[in-house]
């Protein structure tokens, strides 16, 4: 399978669409006794404890959206530990009687947390160069191999890695999410890594630390470096953090096959997911260079002729970023009360904050159903050049609920956002891997809106959707687009308790 054979991505996308009929005929029943364990545990490998006195990212949340990090700042262990924590650490521990829920700094579909973080450290003050796995429950690093492998990772990803202090590689353990969501869960690999990447980006901005997100890499080489098989668990994103002048050679590492505990009694394989993932892999440095050149081209996004209503974002800096991340939790019930126009405008504006990537972004347009925003007539809109362009006017609460898989959250929210991508154009330039990029950016933009909403004192939640019904509803503006993800925002109908910094989760029980 080649990346250029885009029928694979088209087939996957069409085969995993939700519809009114499909959700009623799937016949899937959750096997609770076989639910995957939420943590990856290695057998008989040394661990390096992370500092407990981590510095929180204290810059105001909205300053962190716009901060331009220094290109010369290096990374130390405490800052790395804090970045890992506010990206994927535990903020709440809840006992349900039959199981314990460990909720993280960033949201995840179904609270199943399929994304793992690995550190490829080369020049981190206080940490020996090596490849490590981040264990959020014990708040430590598991040592996979020692040595500086930034040069090797750079050879098979991006030159930015050779000049960073450390790279963080995001992987997905597919079974964790497929247990519930089956074939559609491949989309969630990128939604969930995207919202985590949004947390990481703002945290690094708060620390004045460079962070670049890399979607192009030679999959087999990166997976081999981490000791993962590339099928059951596979790399999905590389983040280059900080700056280093320390030379990193590109010596090839030995193959490792670390032993881990099983996630559940048995794991079911999904050939459609495996086929899609393998078809979107890059297999050589030459193919990578060609892909990066194609990804550097801008994505043409629709621009309506109509002049829209200007956005009016708030000028406030907001609470410290660390407080906002701890406050964030997916809202379970909205109150059907209005949000202000400056709150709405700020969320929209921050959704398109600059994101340093190896592709030319953005690759999504933002559509929204406004149910109850002061100063905006209820209706459907498209965001274009900092304005709100009318698609259709009307009261669409019941429609927004229906589009969100008939969930009450979509109906009760003050506004429901739909990031949509010109998927065929993206696939035509980037091949099947463009599917990863489009879904990832949907996740990143949703993650930024999540943090903006909680920074403004309201709530938010991610939702799934009826694919073709969303496209049809926003037609003709959306005729060449596909929806990537949904985020609903509004005032919660309850007072939620903020999370807290939890570095030893077992002690909370």
Automatic annotation (TrEMBL):
CDD domains: McbC_SagB-like_oxidoreductase (cd02142). It comes from the Archaea. One of its GO terms (molecular function) is oxidoreductase activity. Residues 97-243, 325-469 form the Nitroreductase domain. Pfam families: Nitroreductase (PF00881). SUPFAM superfamilies: FMN-dependent nitroreductase-like (SSF55469). Gene3D superfamilies: NADH Oxidase (3.40.109.10). This is Hypothetical conserved protein.
């Amino acid at each position: 399978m080649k990346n250029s054979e885009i029928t694979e991505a088209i087939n996957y996308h069409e085969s995993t669409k939700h519809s009114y009929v499909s959700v009623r005929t799937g016949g899937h029943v959750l096997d609770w006794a076989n639910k995957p364990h939420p943590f990856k545990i290695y057998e008989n490998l040394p661990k390096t404890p992370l500092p407990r006195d981590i510095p929180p990212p204290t810059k105001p949340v909205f300053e962190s959206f716009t901060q331009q990090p220094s290109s010369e700042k290096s990374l130390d262990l405490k800052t790395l530990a804090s970045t890992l924590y506010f990206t994927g650490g535990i903020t709440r521990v809840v006992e349900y009687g039959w199981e314990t829920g460990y909720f993280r700094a960033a949201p995840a579909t179904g609270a199943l947390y399929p994304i793992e973080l690995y550190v490829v450290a080369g020049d981190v003050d206080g940490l020996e160069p090596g490849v490590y796995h981040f264990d959020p429950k014990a708040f430590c690093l598991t040592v996979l191999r020692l040595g500086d492998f930034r040069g090797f990772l750079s050879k098979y990803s991006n030159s930015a890695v050779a000049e960073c202090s450390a790279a963080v590689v995001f992987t997905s353990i597919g079974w964790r999410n497929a247990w519930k969501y089956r074939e559609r869960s491949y989309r969630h690999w990128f939604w969930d890594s995207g919202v985590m990447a949004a947390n990481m980006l703002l945290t690094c901005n708060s620390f004045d630390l460079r962070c670049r997100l890399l979607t192009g890499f030679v999959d087999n080489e990166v997976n081999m470096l981490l000791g993962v098989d590339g099928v059951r668990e596979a790399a999905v994103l590389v983040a280059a953090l900080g700056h280093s002048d320390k030379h990193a050679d590109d010596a090839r590492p030995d193959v490792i096959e670390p032993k881990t505990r099983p996630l559940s009694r048995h794991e079911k394989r999904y050939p459609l997911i495996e086929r899609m993932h393998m078809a979107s892999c890059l297999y050589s440095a030459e193919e990578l260079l060609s892909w990066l050149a194609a990804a550097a081209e801008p994505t043409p996004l629709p621009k309506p002729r109509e002049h829209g209503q200007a956005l009016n974002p708030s000028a406030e800096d907001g609470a410290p970023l660390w407080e906002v991340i701890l406050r964030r939790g997916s809202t379970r019930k909205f109150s059907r009360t209005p949000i202000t126009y400056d709150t709405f405008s700020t969320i929209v504006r921050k959704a398109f904050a600059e994101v340093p990537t190896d592709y030319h972004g953005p690759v999504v347009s933002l559509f929204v159903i406004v149910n109850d925003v002061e100063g905006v007539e209820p209706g459907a809109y498209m965001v274009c050049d900092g304005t709100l362009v009318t698609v259709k006017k009307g009261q669409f609460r019941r429609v927004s609920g229906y589009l969100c898989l008939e969930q009450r959250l979509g109906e009760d929210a003050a506004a429901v956002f739909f990031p949509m991508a010109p998927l065929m154009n993206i696939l035509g330039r980037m091949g099947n891997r463009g599917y990863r990029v489009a879904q990832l950016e949907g996740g990143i933009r949703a993650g930024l809106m999540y943090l903006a909403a909680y920074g403004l004192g309201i709530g938010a939640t991610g939702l799934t959707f009826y694919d073709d019904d969303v496209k049809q509803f926003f037609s003709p503006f959306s005729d060449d687009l596909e929806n990537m993800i949904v985020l609903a925002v509004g005032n919660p109908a309850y007072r939620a308790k903020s999370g807290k910094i939890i570095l030893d989760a077992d002690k909370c029980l």
